Amino acid sequence: MREALRDEDRLPWLETVDEDYEDRPSTMRVAIFALLGLALLAALVFGAYALRQRAATPSQGSGELIAAPPGDYKVKPEQEGGMKVEGEGDLAFAASEGKRPDKARIDPKQLPEAPVVMPGKGAMPRDIGGGAVIQIGSFPDKAGADAAWARQAKRFAFLGGLGHAVEKAEVAGRVFYRLRVNAGSANAAMELCNKLRVAGEACFIVRG
């Protein structure tokens, strides 16, 4: 009885109460989630920066069309017939196309005529050293013969070291200037003429 009274006389607020612990996440777990979030955010920022840099940098060989310059594609030349090139249409140019220049043609009617040697610089005696002589052109003036020799000697290296002469001849009242070269020997003269004929040039051995 006494024990029952004692239990009833106990005040409820004096009794010990067990503390209720809330189910809260641990600090370690929160730190891990925070680190993962930061890593994801950094990856997104880096990816956006890389895409922006790639878009700003021009790529090579992108296949872009190149704009044509303004103006007409074809323009009429200032000179009629185009630019005139020095030496165009001369003997060497015509011969390179397989044509026989008119000024370099040899008139067979002139061959029996005895040449009249004009004294002056560059004249070559017919009997110098007993060499054979070839004729590579006949021209209406001496300037044409000299110009022809300059072109021939420049075009054919084997003529450069040979002596040459421009001889004046009068046939049927007309004056011609014959361009002749000392070949040295009959065999050399024949070889020179063969080379010149293959190149389309006129040449024959002068029989004297």
Structural topology:
Elements: H1 2-9, H2 27-56, H3 91-96, E1 133-139, H4 142-155, H5 157-160, E2 164-171, E3 174-182, H6 186-198, E4 204-206
Antiparallel strand pairs: 1-3, 1-4, 2-3
Tell me what you see in this structure:
The structure is a single chain. The chain is built from six helices and four strands, in the order αααβααββαβ. Residues 111-129 have low confidence and may be disordered. It has a domain at 133-206: Sporulation related repeat (Alpha-Beta Plaits), CATH 3.30.70. The protein has a four-stranded antiparallel beta sheet with strand order 2-3-1-4. It has 208 residues and is an alpha+beta fold. The termini are far apart. It is rod-shaped and about 170 Å long.
Instruction: Determine the number of helices (DSSP H or I, runs of at least 4 residues).
Output: 6
Query: How are helices and strands ordered from N to C?
Result: HHHEHHEEHE
What percent strand?
5-15%
* End-to-end CA span: 179 Å
Shape: rod-shaped
Query: What is the CATH-assigned architecture of the domain at 133-206?
Result: 2-Layer Sandwich
How would you state the average pLDDT, rounded?
A: 72
What characterizes the major β-sheet?
4 strands, antiparallel
Query: What is the class of the domain at 133-206 in the CATH system?
Result: Alpha Beta
Q: What do we call the CATH topology of the domain at 133-206?
A: Alpha-Beta Plaits
Q: Which regions are unreliable across 5 or more consecutive residues at pLDDT < 50?
A: 111-129
Q: Please count the beta strands (DSSP E, at least 2 residues each).
A: 4
The percentage helix is 25-40%
- Major sheet strand order: 2-3-1-4
**Assembly state:** single chain
Alpha-carbon Rg, integer = 54 Å
SS-derived structural category: alpha+beta
Per CATH, the superfamily of the domain at 133-206 is: Sporulation related repeat
